[in-house]
């Protein structure tokens, strides 16, 4: 028998001091789940709207104009859009703030010895903070590109909507015809699918889905919804880049 | 067979630890991991060295005392099997096996491979018990419970409190452990009056020392009792129920 000392590493003390935070982990997770599901529902509906691009410029622009005029005069002009924007902005704030809080708590609770070399099985779970950050960047870029038309995110030919007309179709095509932007949109959709697939499954746990059949349905639904969002959306930048959509 | 063990040595909680390598010869493939450590300790003691500290009791997978990290895996290479039921046949002859304590912020190292898992006890103290005076034994059918419900409660009651789920979790979460106890008790009618306060108390105690659950699913890979991820949904269901009904219901 031989004895040899190999390496010295610090650690071994309890790193998780007892905590009584203002917003408990349970409530942070509820905020994550509810806001995440709001996003998921929005992204799904938004994807179906995007598919109108295949009906041509006229239909797509008419749809964009309708979104602005929807429910007039009950709602003011752009009323529906502003309700959506406020809900989404509040959700985004809650989602990102709670994600940051939970991420920090998780690191503290685990302590200095991380788990390493985990199998592919938990890939989507482990990459949630990374895919989330990419999505945050994407959301900001996307709004500057196709909503406000702010350069350098937007294309040079961006034309803002007026009270009764929209150039959404032309703006979209011009934006995606820039190869680096088209590719970025396509990659962002893959990232979105990874985030949503694990996100819906996590939210199912946060909201207490215990039934056997319910769980089987939800695990399938999380994958199918992510895949539908992915295929519906990614087809657009790909077909623009291939010159099919013009 | 011949194996090299790279073992975490740490004199106490207060000092830093380090790895040391030990060659072990003459152990059989049928040895359990803990029997190999016994043999190694015999050799260490006979040469006047300090034996490796580790926890164990029943050595048949029912008490939850044992638990070391083997090559980064809590409990060892065979899934859903406690350290005392892991065998040397999992390792090729001549290989090096790295042994560390269970790693988690809430589990300070006591000595070498032994950690302090009393954080789990504090979760149970939060409400994972029945505090009713039950009196004399009730008639068998006084509290109707269906066969399936009784079986489900027993399945969740199978948790042996080893803490491997916490050690497996990249977030240091104890949701599987806590959820197993909450599901177990919530399925039985005799404990229903404490259902809400139990959920509140246990989840509060858990959040104080352990991390959030991100549904990595690593816990269910190591759990020797086969507790399913449903326990985690059950924990949140019980807590949500308590919130919606008001405290103590
Ligand atoms: C379209 C945008 C987004 C959608 C559809 C979405 C959806 C979701 C859903 C459904 C969850 C599960 C919630 C839970 O129960 O914990 C989740 C979790 C998460 N999201 Fe998002 N999210 C989006 C954007 C973001 C952004 C911008 C971030 C920024 C950092 C982010 C970071 C995270 C993280 C870190 C988690 C994991 C939380 C945990 O497991 O503890 N997400 N997301
Ligand atoms: S849930 Fe499983 S892994 Fe966790 S403490 Fe109980 S028996 Fe151990
Ligand atoms: S020693 Fe009892 S479970 Fe391993």
Automatic annotation (TrEMBL), chain A:
A Gene Ontology term for the protein's cellular component: membrane
Keywords of this entry: Heme, Iron, Membrane, Metal-binding, Transmembrane, Transmembrane helix
Transmembrane stretches, start-end: 21-45, 82-103, 123-144, 183-204, 216-245
Keyword match RNA-binding: no
Subcellular location per the Swiss-Prot or TrEMBL entry: Membrane
Tagged with keyword Plastid: no
Top-level lineage group: Bacteria
Matches recorded under NCBIfam families: sdhC_b558_fam (TIGR02046)
The name this protein goes by in its record: Succinate dehydrogenase
Gene source species: Cryobacterium melibiosiphilum
Upper lineage: Bacteria, Bacillati, Actinomycetota, Actinomycetes, Micrococcales
Automatic annotation (TrEMBL), chain B:
Annotated GO biological process: aerobic respiration; respiratory electron transport chain
Cofactor(s) demanded: [2Fe-2S] cluster; [3Fe-4S] cluster
Recorded GO MF terms: 2 iron, 2 sulfur cluster binding; electron transfer activity; metal ion binding
Keyword Iron-sulfur: yes
Pfam families cross-referenced by the UniProt entry: Fer2_3 (PF13085), Fer4_7 (PF12838)
UniProt similarity note: Belongs to the succinate dehydrogenase/fumarate reductase iron-sulfur protein family.
Ranges of residues in domain 4Fe-4S ferredoxin-type: 150-179
UniProt protein name: Succinate dehydrogenase/fumarate reductase iron-sulfur subunit
PANTHER family: SUCCINATE DEHYDROGENASE, SUCCINATE DEHYDROGENASE IRON-SULFUR PROTEIN
Superkingdom to which the source organism belongs: Bacteria
InterPro entries (UniProt xref): 2Fe-2S_ferredoxin-like_sf, 2Fe-2S_ferredoxin-type, 2Fe2S_fd_BS, 4Fe4S_Fe-S-bd, 4Fe4S_Fe_S_CS, Beta-grasp_dom_sf, Helical_ferredxn, SDH/FRD_Iron-Sulfur
Annotated SUPFAM superfamilies: 2Fe-2S ferredoxin-like, alpha-helical ferredoxin
């Amino acid at each position: 028998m031989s004895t040899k000392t190999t390496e010295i590493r610090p650690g071994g003390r309890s790193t998780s001091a007892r905590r009584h935070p203002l917003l408990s982990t349970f409530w942070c997770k509820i905020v994550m789940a509810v806001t995440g599901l709001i996003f998921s529902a929005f992204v799904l509906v938004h994807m179906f709207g995007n598919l109108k691009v295949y009906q041509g410029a006229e239909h797509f622009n008419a749809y964009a104009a309708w979104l602005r005029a929807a429910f007039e005069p009950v709602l003011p002009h752009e009323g529906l859009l502003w309700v959506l924007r406020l809900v989404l902005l509040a959700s985004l704030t809650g989602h990102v703030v709670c994600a940051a809080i939970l991420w920090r708590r998780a690191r503290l609770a685990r302590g200095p010895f991380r788990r390493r070399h985990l199998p592919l099985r938990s890939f989507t779970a482990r990459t949630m903070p990374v895919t989330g950050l990419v999505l945050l960047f994407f959301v900001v870029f996307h709004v500057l590109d196709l909503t406000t038309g702010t350069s350098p995110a937007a294309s040079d030919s961006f034309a803002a909507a007026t009270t009764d007309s929209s150039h959404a179709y032309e703006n979209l095509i011009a934006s995606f015809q820039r190869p680096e932007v088209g590719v970025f949109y396509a990659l962002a959709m893959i990232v979105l699918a990874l985030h949503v697939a694990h996100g819906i499954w996590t939210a199912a746990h946060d909201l207490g889905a215990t039934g056997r059949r319910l769980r089987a349905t939800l695990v399938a639904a999380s994958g199918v919804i992510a895949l539908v969002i992915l295929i519906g959306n990614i087809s657009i930048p790909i077909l623009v880049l291939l010159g099919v959509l013009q | 067979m011949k194996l090299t063990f790279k073992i975490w040595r740490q004199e106490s909680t207060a000092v830093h630890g380090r790895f040391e390598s030990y060659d072990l010869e003459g152990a059989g493939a049928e040895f359990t991991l803990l029997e190999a450590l016994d043999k190694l300790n015999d050799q260490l003691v006979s040469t006047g060295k300090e034996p490796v500290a580790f926890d164990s009791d029943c050595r048949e997978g029912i008490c939850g005392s044992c638990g070391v990290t083997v090559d980064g895996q809590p409990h060892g290479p065979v899934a859903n099997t406690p350290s005392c039921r892991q065998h040397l046949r999992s390792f090729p002859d001549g290989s090096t096996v790295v042994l560390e304590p269970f790693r988690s912020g809430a589990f300070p190292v006591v000595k070498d491979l032994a950690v302090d898992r009393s954080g789990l006890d504090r979760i149970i103290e939060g409400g994972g018990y029945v505090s009713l005076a039950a009196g004399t034994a009730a008639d068998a059918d006084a509290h109707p419970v269906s066969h399936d419900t009784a079986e489900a409660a027993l399945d969740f009651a199978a948790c042996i409190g080893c803490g491997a789920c916490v050690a497996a979790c990249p977030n240091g979460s104890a949701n599987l452990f806590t959820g197993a106890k909450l599901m177990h008790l919530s399925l039985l009618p005799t404990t229903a009056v404490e259902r809400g306060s139990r959920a509140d108390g246990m989840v509060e105690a858990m959040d104080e020392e352990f991390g959030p659950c991100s549904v990595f699913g690593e816990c269910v890979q190591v759990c020797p009792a086969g507790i399913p991820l449903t326990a985690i949904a059950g924990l949140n269901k019980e807590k949500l129920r308590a919130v919606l009904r008001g405290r103590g219901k």
